[in-house]
């Protein structure tokens, strides 16, 4: 027991030192859901505090060992990370977030400190499903037709046969984005430099409509 507590204290101290150098940890009461990819285990949880670098959660869990997890936090979205300590039903998680994800989380926490609710933060980043034809421009200047699957003020999911490597910057609807993932039918793009953070989803949809590609004769936007 003493050894376990010591390792927990060392891990927490190291993580807190890192966060103090970069981010402010904020006390929160945010519902979430924890998923352990290696076992398929999932459970409801509550976030006690949060920073762009990590969080502390509590819940009625089965025994969880230190290791990789996926955390869904209401209003803040999805985080990948690792359990680095646990004690008395509480678990410390260190995130493995991109710089852009850290910046967005910091912005969300700042909005919360200014009085914005978790519900309004969730609405701001909520994704809306659509089936619009559009296009994006790659770094080499090539213009790629695509179908917009869903959009939010932080990013867009596209159906496309062309999959630029993750990390490549693209231009869509006049905004710069970065390819952050590949999925079964295309790519996910995260807006950079603030992206559409000052717009709501309706305004973003109107902006994207200005860039819609007219479908070929005999094809509708919903065609497979």
Give a topology summary.
Layout: H1 2-22, E1 26-36, E2 41-51, E3 54-58, E4 68-73, E5 77-87, E6 90-95, H2 99-113, H3 118-124, E7 128-137, E8 143-152, E9 155-159, E10 169-172, E11 175-183, E12 186-191, H4 201-209
Antiparallel strand pairs: 1-2, 1-4, 2-3, 3-6, 4-5, 5-6, 7-8, 8-9, 9-12, 10-11, 11-12
- The CATH architecture of the largest domain would be Beta Barrel
Instruction: Indicate how many domains the architecture comprises.
Output: 2
Q: Report the CATH topology name of the largest domain.
A: Thrombin, subunit H
Kindly report the name of the CATH homologous superfamily of the largest domain. predicted glycosyltransferase like domains
Overall number of strands:
12
**What is the first-to-last residue Cα distance?**
58 Å
Residue stretches low in confidence (pLDDT < 50, at least 5 long) are 1-7, 215-224
């Amino acid at each position: 027991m003493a050894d376990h507590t010591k390792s927990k204290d060392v891990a927490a101290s190291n993580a807190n030192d890192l966060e103090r150098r970069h981010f402010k940890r904020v006390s929160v009461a945010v519902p979430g859901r924890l998923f352990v990819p290696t076992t398929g285990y999932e459970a409801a949880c509550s976030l006690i505090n949060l920073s762009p670098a990590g969080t502390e959660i509590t819940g009625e869990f089965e025994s969880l060992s230190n290791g990789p997890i996926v955390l869904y936090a209401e209003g803040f979205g999805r985080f990948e990370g690792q359990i680095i300590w646990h004690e008395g039903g509480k678990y410390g998680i260190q995130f493995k977030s991109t710089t852009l994800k850290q910046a967005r989380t910091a912005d969300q926490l700042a909005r919360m400190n200014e009085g914005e609710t978790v519900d309004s933060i969730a609405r701001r980043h909520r994704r809306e499903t659509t089936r619009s034809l559009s296009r994006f421009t790659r770094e080499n200047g090539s213009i790629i037709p695509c179908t917009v699957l869903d959009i939010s003020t932080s990013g867009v999911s596209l159906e496309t046969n062309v999959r630029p490597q993750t990390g490549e910057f693209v231009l869509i609807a006049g905004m710069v984005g970065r390819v952050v993932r590949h999925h079964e039918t295309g790519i996910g793009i995260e807006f950079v430099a603030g992206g559409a953070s000052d717009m709501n989803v309706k305004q973003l949809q109107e902006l994207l409509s200005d860039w819609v590609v007219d479908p070929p004769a005999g094809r509708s936007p919903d065609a497979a």
